[in-house]
Design a protein that fits this description.
With 260 residues, the chain is an alpha/beta fold. It has eleven helices and ten strands. Strand 2 (14-19), helix 1 (30-45) and strand 3 (51-56) form a beta-alpha-beta unit. It is globular. The structure holds octanoyl-coenzyme A. Octanoyl-coenzyme A binds next to helix 2, helix 3 and strand 6.
């Protein structure tokens, strides 16, 4: 497939998908999300692709979140539906029977951290930064972050990260179980991602698919968590704080929240 914001490369059974909107630190706009959806569907069907590595273009950013400039004008009525659609896409990654590794080369914030968490493993460069800074915009994570961060690092740390909006380093992320491995350089990132992927692919393919399926079965997608997240995201978009938070980002100033 051809895509405007993705580079797709298939070598030795490993499909590398590079997210490329460098002028916006690879932020996810709707067009990019639809390309990602098409790439995932293609990956599911492609019998030559046995595993996927998702990374970001350049050294500075994996994905700096959903595109704030685009969603700042979102209609409150559509907001929950947008979140649900993003959740479905990230679920498609999480339930892929073929392994998916996030090679995190810099900022993994908001929707970028959520994308990395939907992958089966996370490997990061030491300059990577992780966080869910949505509350600084007057919203909450909308692509499954409230659920997956809690699953990966536990309730207490997940609540702290989402309520303070603190960004953490790759080493800190590794210490709390958000990241599997940390490496020094981008080249080392790709090399380690490929070598772990090769090790996984040398094992029984059906067995690996069943490991993924069984782990996922313990975490319901049908429960109230994801739906509450989507509804709550929609509710936040109706507030003055959302308008203030996103306007402040665009105007490069600190937001003044009033709790309305
Ligand atoms: N969206 C849009 N543009 C972005 C984003 C983003 N998420 N992140 C960075 N950019 C743009 C900047 O606006 C800037 O553009 P310009 O050059 O035109 O001014 C360019 O990328 C470079 O960024 P900075 O100049 O800000 O670079 P710095 O090194 O100074 O700072 C940061 C880097 C710290 C990463 C900073 O850019 C930042 O804080 N970005 C926003 C991070 C963030 O809050 N992410 C969460 C977004 S919300 C989200 O993901 C919710 C998910 C669910 C959504 C459901 C949607 C319906």
């Amino acid at each position: 497939m051809t895509a405007k914001h993705l580079r797709i490369d298939l070598q030795n059974g490993i499909q590398t998908l590079t997210i490329s909107r460098p002028h916006a630190l690879n932020a996810l706009n709707q067009e990019l999300l639809e390309e990602l959806r098409a790439a995932m569907l293609e990956f599911y069907k492609n019998e030559e692709a046995h595993g996927m590595i998702i990374t970001g273009e350049g050294e500075k950013s994996f994905v700096a979140g959903a595109d704030i400039k685009e969603f700042s004008s979102i209609n409150p009525g559509e907001a929950a539906a947008f979140a649900r659609r993003g959740q479905d896409l990230f679920r498609m990654i999480e339930v892929s029977p073929k392994p998916v590794i996030a090679a995190v080369n810099g900022f993994a914030l908001g929707g970028g951290c959520e994308l990395a968490m939907a992958c089966h493993l996370r490997i990061a460069t030491q300059n990577a930064k992780f966080g869910q800074p949505e509350v600084t915009l007057g919203i909450i994570p909308g692509y499954g972050g409230t659920q997956r961060l809690t699953q990966l690092v536990g309730r207490g740390k997940a609540l702290e990260l989402m309520m303070t909006a603190d960004l953490i380093t790759a080493e800190e992320a590794k210490a709390i179980g958000l990241v599997n491995h940390v490496v020094a350089t981008r080249q080392a990132l790709i090399e380690l991602s490929e070598s772990i992927m090769k090790k996984i692919l040398s094992n029984g393919r059906i067995a690996v698919a069943n490991v993924i399926k069984s782990v996922n079965a313990g975490f319901s997608f049908e429960g109230a968590g994801y739906e509450t997240e989507a509804e709550s995201f929609g509710a936040c978009v109706r507030t003055k704080d959302f308008r203030e938070g996103t306007a402040a980002f665009v105007e490069k100033r600190k937001p003044k929240f009033t709790g309305e």
